[in-house]
Specification:
Layout: H1 3-29, H2 35-56, H3 60-69, H4 74-99, H5 103-123, H6 131-151, H7 156-172, H8 179-204, H9 208-211, H10 214-221, H11 223-238, H12 243-249, H13 252-264, H14 271-290, H15 293-305
Length: 306
């Protein structure tokens, strides 16, 4: 893999995480709209947008072929349905958290997520961990315990985001399709529910399309593009760069969300919360380093001399 290819991949993946990190600003602009209505619009318009993307990239035939294959491959169909429900839960919790002033806890969820994914791999897929990775889990658990004390409750928003996205990733392992086709399939499953809900709001006279200005209408209609563009950039970048590099880049998004929550939207950030994040950042650093070749070679040298 050439330097130019890797550089392009870094730009694509980095920009995708930058967009994900700035996405809370988008949801804040829709703060007067209910989280369920935003979610319904996001699902519906993502599906419409992805159909155009598939047509433009000549992948529509692949999409239709996979739809036909579900008649015989029930396991993939069930995995798709589960993935659709999980990503919808994840989107809803995140939108609700951002617009209810809990962006810091939401960012914590995406810091914890990589570690949750590894736990799921350990339990469900019987993957093996090294000592450093076990240590990273211990540090992360201490961090979650500290933040639970600081809140006076279990940080359910962070855990809901981490586990819904971790389980989503696990379900996605069973669906071997192109990322663009995958997003189209996932949104297709829940689009009928979203469409019925949006029609109900229109009939009931409570839809944001009836009560807010053209700016809100445009923001709701472009939720599809806001959802799909970072994913498409990520898919392109992920194919061009090493997994360890991708692992470090993924922390751009929650870091930006955390900074937005503290410095732009003025959310309260206590000393105990900072201590909790320090433990979790340490856990992520150890975990990320444990996946690099340098760490593996160092571990081999230590074992040889012991």
């Amino acid at each position: 893999m050439g330097d130019k290819t890797i550089r392009t991949g870094v730009y694509q993946a980095g920009f995708s995480y930058l967009l994900w990190g700035l996405l809370p600003i988008y949801w804040k602009l829709l703060g007067d709209v209910g989280a369920i209505e935003i979610l319904a619009n996001r699902v519906f318009w993502s599906f419409i947008f992805m159909l155009f993307v598939l047509s433009f990239t000549k992948k529509l035939s692949s999409f239709l072929g996979i739809l036909k294959s579900f008649k015989s491959e029930r396991k993939q169909l069930y995995a798709l349905a589960i993935a659709s429900i999980l990503i919808s839960i994840n989107w809803f919790v995140y939108i609700w958290a951002v617009n209810s002033g809990q962006m810091i806890e939401a960012s914590l969820g995406y810091y914890i997520n990589p570690l949750v994914s590894v736990v799921l791999g350990l339990i469900v897929l019987k993957e093996r961990l090294n000592g450093a990775q076990y240590a990273s889990f211990a540090l992360a658990l201490i961090g979650v315990a500290i933040i639970s004390v600081s809140y006076g409750r279990i940080p359910w928003i962070a855990l809901a985001l981490a586990f819904s996205f971790g389980l989503y990733g696990l379900a996605k392992k069973l669906i071997k399709v192109d990322s663009a086709v995958g997003l189209t399939l996932e949104t297709m499953v829940v689009t009928p529910i979203a469409a019925v809900y949006l029609l109900f709001l229109l009939e009931d006279g409570t839809s944001a399309f009836l009560h807010f200005g053209i700016g809100t209408h445009l923001l709701l209609a472009t939720t599809g593009a806001a959802t799909a563009l970072p994913l498409l950039l990520f898919a392109g970048g992920a194919q061009k760069i090493p997994l360890s590099m991708l692992g470090f880049l993924q922390y751009i998004a929650p870091t930006l969300s955390l900074m937005l929550g503290i410095f732009v939207y003025g959310e309260h950030f206590t000393g105990l919360q900072l201590l909790s994040f320090i433990f979790i950042w340490s856990a992520l650093t150890i975990y990320s380093l444990s996946r690099t070749k340098l760490f593996s070679s160092l571990g081999m040298k230590i074992r040889k001399h012991s």
